[in-house]
Amino acid sequence: MEMTCGRDGLASATADEREGHLARDNPISQKCRLESPGMIAEDSSATEAQRIITYEGTVDDLPPPNASTPITYLYLTFDTPVAGPDLGNPQLDRENLPACPDLSRYTDPLSWPWARKGVMVAISCVATCFTAYAAGAYSESVDLIAADLKTTREGALVGVTTFCLGFAIAPMVLAPFSEINGRYPVFAIAGILFVVFQAVCGVVRNLAGMLIARFLKGVGGSVFSTMVGGVIADMYEKEGRNTPMALFSGAVLVGTGLGPLVAAVMVQRWGKDGDKWKWIFWHQVIIDFILMVAVVAFFNESRGSVLLCRKAKVLNMWYTKIEEKGVFGVCVAELNIDPGVVPRSTMASTEKHISPPGLKYRARLRGDVRLQRIRWIVKEDEHKTSIATMVTVSLFRPFLLLFTEPIVFFFSLWVSFAWAILYLTFGSIPLVFQRQYGFNVEQSGYVFTAMIIGSIFSTIIGICQESMLKHPRWQSRSDNSDVESSENSSENLEENAGRTGFWVFARRRFPVESPESRLYFACFTSVLLPAGLFLFGFAAQPSIHWMVPAFAIFLATMGIFYVYLATFNYLADIYQTYASSALAAQSFCRNVLGGAFPLVTAPLIRNLGEDATGGLLGGIATVLTVVPWVLVLFGEKIRGRSSFAIALERK
Questions:
Q1: Where among 339, 359, 379 does a domain terminate?
Q2: Which of 38, 82, 393, 488 fits a 20 to 30 Å CA distance from 178?
Q3: 562: confidence class by pLDDT, cuts 50, 70, 90
Q4: pLDDT at residue 380 above 70?
């Protein structure tokens, strides 16, 4: 029964229930079942866990609340009916009572309408795209930056490294702030930082200033890449998370390819014409400013605990204003707690003074209500630690997971190498296509179109793979049903033996309910990364058409996408409460390695050649494709040895 507050008092689901529990003529004289912490129904035949706190009587047996009545603190959830004053009491001056506040802004993000979630995902993905765009666009202008700042090409390339360091370090500090204060303020402030230092990059006059500006730009941009997964987790349950995560992953790769493509055209056409090349930064300032306006205007707070705290604060302020008018007590719906579940010491589990943290109990709403003087609190507030403690944990725990959890270590290694290959393309594509095919800067920039197309294709397939996991023949069913079905239709069995046998095998050996189901497709699609590297290395020569190595880039990009998507989904599912730390560990490794690879790209290719470089990197990528296979085949045993995974299963 859902209760709401308003000028007409409490309302239940139906008029009949309203009349039965809150009759207008004498609402507080109705017979009801009260649960009071001071009244224990002792039953010698019942176990400790079966003693229910109950009291049979009428509300008239209890004195009405007044200014001296102690305040009871109750836990608030998104499903808690809103307690309002008894406006059916004819003695109340209803006209002068403050109206119930608008609570529509504090609804559970998991229950938001799809359009609202869609806007949030769209803003997040576009912001992610242009954050990645900023990383790729810089690499195409390093020669002009080096000449303007009077430094070497390698010195200017360090700007990519410092940008990635900002990406790696900042989330470990900013993530705790978003957990406590909400996503919105962190996104808004980081967005301003990103735009400001984007502009600074266009006006600095020395290398040190450029490197510092790039680092702080990476700090601001990191929010729109590493924390979007948290926003998606706020709004979607595990089963519906794959599609937005696929869109997010695709946006990263599209932006990474789009940045160098646009920058290459600008450098080729404006590079030697005064300072026009600086429009590589200034056009991003314009785009990012518009984007940040959209974030400030349309981005909603998605952190559930933060919204719940704000709701409790608003309701408590309303109760205070009501009491200032001389009205004490609101109509609180009773909870019927199932026997055999809650121990005696925690019967009134909704009340603060006898509620231990972490209590799990089953309760359902009953239509009974009583007048009570209350204030709402949120459980997350009681377990909240200081910012300093959370930052310390945020900095320490990712490395603890990285070096003590084999799953986190090898996934971090796998995705870090894939990310390093992505950043390697910034330098390898222009260098290889200019060396082997005589392309100019603009023509080599167009090759990044293969990366964009590969990102779009892989995103579409990544979305479709979720529906394949939901195939009805892949869902769990008992062996008896299979046998019974086979006995009743022997002819169909012979006709569809191969197909039926496949689904029985899939259900038994590769169940969709297993956490490793996130990796089934990645076992095959991640092979595209080494395949693309091998093909790029051995096909990049004048005797072979340039479209072949471009196609190799297409394949490698798809492989990177599936590695990225599988890592995010699997770590989030396995580590749940610790998911942010597990993802922070892989994010740190990924961005550090990604920032280092552009510095070694040119020496690697010039010294080894395209074929040897492709063979070396392809060989490493081939070895790392073993990671998802090991988890699929032995995941349960590996998780059984994980102290973090075991602790989560016991909760």
A1: 379
A2: 82
A3: very high
A4: yes
Q: Which domain holds residue 196?
A: 113-301
Pull the structure tokens for residue 68: 């001296």
Looking at the structure, tell me whether residues 331 and 218 fall in a common domain. Answer: no
372 and 394 in a single domain? The answer is no
Residues 424 and 521 in one domain: yes
Q: Is residue 485 included in any domain, yes or no?
A: no
Tell me: do 543 and 423 sit in the same domain. yes
DSSP letters, 510-546, are S-TTSGGGGGTTHHHHTTHHHHHHHHHHHH-STTS-T
pLDDT in tens, 265-319: 998 888 776 677 888 999 999 999 999 999 988 999 998 888 999 999 999 999 9
Query: Cβ neighbours of residue 273 under 8 Å, at least 6 residues apart?
Result: none
Contact 597, 424 (CB under 8 A): yes
Helix H segments across 71-152?
A: 114-139, 142-149
| Domain assignment present for 571 | yes
Six-digit token string for 484: 């019974």
CA distance 209 to 292: 24
CA 206/CA 146 separation, integer angstroms: 10
- With a CB cutoff of 8 Å and minimum separation 6, the contacts of 149 are 156, 204, 205, 206, 207, 210
What single-letter DSSP state applies at residue 328? -
Residues 395 and 536 in one domain: yes
- For residue 321, give both structure tokens: 């204003």
State how far the Cα of 199 lies from the Cα of 194, in Å rounded to an integer: 9
Whether 369 and 332 have beta carbons less than 8 Å apart is answered as yes
Which two structure tokens, joined as six digits, stand for 637?
């045993």
Q: Return the structure tokens found at 86.
A: 């008894």
Closest by Cα among 192, 124, 132, 180 to 394: 180
Count of the separate structural domains present in the chain: 3
Cβ–Cβ < 8 Å for 546, 626: no
